[in-house]
What we know:
Blueprint: E1 2-8, E2 11-18, H1 26-36, E3 43-46, H2 50-60, E4 64-67, H3 72-84, H4 93-109, H5 113-123
Parallel strand pairs: 2-3, 3-4
Antiparallel strand pairs: 1-2
Helix pairs in contact: 1-2, 1-4
Amino acid sequence: MITIGIVDNDRFALPMLDMPLTDIPGPEICRRVRAASADIVVLGITSYSLDHYRQLAIDAGDQGLIAKSVTPKELAEAMRNVLVRPFPGFPTTEQAHGSIVSASARRSRTLSKREREVLGLYADNYSTA
């Protein structure tokens, strides 16, 4: 589930992503958003331990992480604050975008000659047999 915190003229100003989603976890959604854009602030939310998901949220490009158990007042304050600056230790949207794009480029360059050959065969519709 993606919880929308603030909507401005039909544009999501602050998507809040649940960390342990079943089909596509929040960090993966954030990574995809972050790879495509440095403009969207993302806030992670979880009912699990913040310590458990903190580094995962940072690596995915979130600007903050909060517990679902916060009060409505704390939630509103966290939303206002994260739109101004990332939580301590979290990257800015620009930093996160740069990291995600760089990591993606590094991964694509790290395929071995054999891996590239096998992918080429798949592209030519060869089977694993």
